[in-house]
Amino acid sequence: MSFSSDEVNFLVYRYLQESGFQHSAYTFGIESHISQSNINGALVPPAALLSIIQKGLQYTEAEISIGEDGTERMVDSLSLIDAVMPDVVASRQQANQAKSNVVKNEPNNTNGDDGAHSYTNHTEAIEVDSSIEIPSNKCTVLRGHESEVFICAWNPTTDLLASGSGDSTARIWNMNETSTSPNQLVLRHCIQKGGTEVPSNKDVTSLDWNCDGSLLATGSYDGYARIWTTDGRLASTLGQHKGPIFALKWNKKGNYILSAGVDKTTIIWDASSGDRKSVV
Fold first, then answer.
1. Sign of the alpha-carbon torsion through 248, 251, 254, 256
2. Which of 45, 171, 241, 245 has the most beta carbons within 10 angstroms of its beta carbon?
3. What's the CA gap between 22 and 164, in Å, rounded?
4. In Å, how far from its chain's centre is CA 204?
5. Beta strands of the chain (E only): which ranges?
6. pTM of the predicted model, to two decimals?
7. pLDDT (tens digit, 9 = 90+) per residue, 202-218?
């Protein structure tokens, strides 16, 4: 088995994204040059890093539980930190072997002393079924994005769902329809180049609905924040950041938008005029 630093970096990057650490994910992505790797993110399943860590933890527990004579004994679960400490693993192996020898030589005890209870507790096992599947008639799959989906947000007043993706689009899904494939509006994030609008080819990193659900604000890796109506029309483009935007939020009244960028600035925007009100 072999692996490269690019592969490790990509799994860490995906873990940060999936855990909601958007700022950390984008900063890490820049520093580790994720965009220059040849890894197809669409083929990597969700929670890939946690899955491989869990398998490694199970392997370490198996090493401890199997004795020199080939018999298997129940052991206390290891924490992840314990599993990467050789001294802890070695001491667990020795303690488990010694406990096994004591149990083999110990007569049956029915008086309920501590030793008997201790041994009984160590033989208890809890099985967790990780193969539970949601029936297809109980879920709706939204198909349309051509790359990873980074963020989703429900409209606060209607059954509209907004999603942002690495395909440089946000989409508004009408979940009020009874169809198995809800209608979607594609919000293409474009930039001016040579006098014409062309796709930015940058990730949509953040999005947020205003308080009454009439406007959707999106932030992009191209450094622009945008305001959209519920019918998919681009109402305003806010461009002052000198790097990717990684977070964006409306205030409660719905008249200001706060955006934060990798350029180490946060900007307060007037949503109605698109003017910059303050920079921190």
1. negative
2. 245
3. 13
4. 15
5. 149-154, 160-165, 169-174, 184-188, 190-193, 196-199, 204-209, 215-220, 225-229, 234-238, 245-250, 256-261, 266-270, 276-279
6. 0.54
7. 889 999 999 999 999 99
